[in-house]
Amino acid sequence: MKQNIDFLIKTLNNLESLPIFCGKKWLFWLGSFLTVLAILSFLYLPYGNGDTVYYTMVGRGIFRDHMLPYSYAFDHKPWGVYLFYGAWDKICPFFHGDFFFLSLVLGSVTLYFCRFFGTFNIITALFIYIFVGNIFGILDGNTENVLTACSSIVLAVLYNGLSNKRFVNYFIPGFMIPLLININYLVAVSLFLPVLFLLFSPRFFKLQYIFIFSIGCIVGLLTSFSPYLIEGNNALQSYFRMQHDFLQNYGGNTVSRISSVLCTIAYTVMFLPVLLLWYRKYREEMRAGEPSSLLLPLWFISSLPATVLSGHPFNHYYILCFVPLVIMASVLFYQNVKFPRYSFLFLCIVSIISQGFCTGRNIRWLWDMSFIDYALITREAAHQRVLNIRADQAFFYMGDFRTFDRYAFTDHVDIMFGAGAEKRYLNDLAQHPPLVMTPFNACMTGNAERSVCDVLKKNYTLIYSVNALTQRKGKLPYFSLDLYRLAKESK
Predict the structure, then answer these.
(1) Reduced to 3 states, what is the DSSP secondary structure of residue 4?
(2) Across 377-421, where does the E strand assignment appear?
(3) Which of 45, 151, 272, 390 is deepest in the core (most CB within 10 A)?
(4) Is the pTM above the cut of 0.90?
(5) What angle do CA 429, 53, 154 make, to 5 degrees?
(6) Mind listing the pLDDT tens digit for each residue in 231-282?
């Protein structure tokens, strides 16, 4: 017992002295307290991001109904992401905290494999990962967590191949990269420079290794698309065509793109002390092409364009840059590199504010969720198809609904069809879906067109309605819905 207490005291002292807290112990204790509160709130929250629940819903269609994306439901991500989240949904026995545990597993994998790139204290790195990472939604379990975990495996295996010269260390990364691209296309950008360096650096370049890596890529590519190749009937062509058509309408406007670039610059400025001190300490090794000093900066630099490619200023994209920065900071802290006293003050303040914001949001979401009887709406649905008209897509996850229209995400019909969204909904309603879900009082708030409302009024019966308290001005109300059942005489 005494040894455990001594270890805990030593750990806390080490964390207290991190340059992040600028020598102020009260900042450490305040940040730690808010971090614990945020973690506790995530433990009770079923999900922290609307994207992940939609990926899981599509994944359920793969495992339960044996239907490939996008024949079941559509989102513009590659199909591997739905396979991953569908598998996690099967594996994880929890409901509350499901994606929080996924984040911890992926974070642990990331930090474990990043040990190959430098020596650091794993507890320190994990603390920074959670404390600072909450700025970027690190505990939401989004696809960037999956990418960074798997990217660390790819780079660690390939990096290890520089010393042991085994072919398997080149085949495995080659095989994994197409699988990762099938989870999120951004990984092709974020891994480009570090993989290029490890394969083509003059000190380690060998044609046989490039050949083995290429064979792995080909095998991984064929494995990735084998379900569509087996299905035939132009399934693969349809798969790419739907993504292409959607992404043409999805890209951000000029203001959104500028905001995305500015956010990336602002985030990077907060970590500028890490980049500058890393360069100052390892300048000679970097010029000599030493992998241990170059790999992490190359990973960071390669990830920067990936954060702005979508044209949307979503903070979770920066996780791709954040992970190599965490490892660089942890290595520098382990080596007791002296930072200017207040170099991380702004980062610390933003992190503390983020902890408070996340905790408040999670508590508010839990409160709003308490107004909805998910057991009731699940029984009402009874595995029938549900047409979603601009309601929150999370209801498909929480109520275990099956979708009637493949565009079940809140705003995907509007993105895909624009002014033709009304016609799309009317065509769907003409096929008499058994259930229809809309935001609360959609016909009065303008969230459903008049013609759509006329059909609902004529052919459907409102069977469940709830209006959660929290609503944001100008946004669709979260956790508020109306559920309609097709009248018997209309069938």
Answers:
(1) helix
(2) 385-388, 402-403
(3) 151
(4) yes
(5) 130
(6) 777 777 888 888 888 877 776 678 888 889 999 999 999 999 999 999 999 9
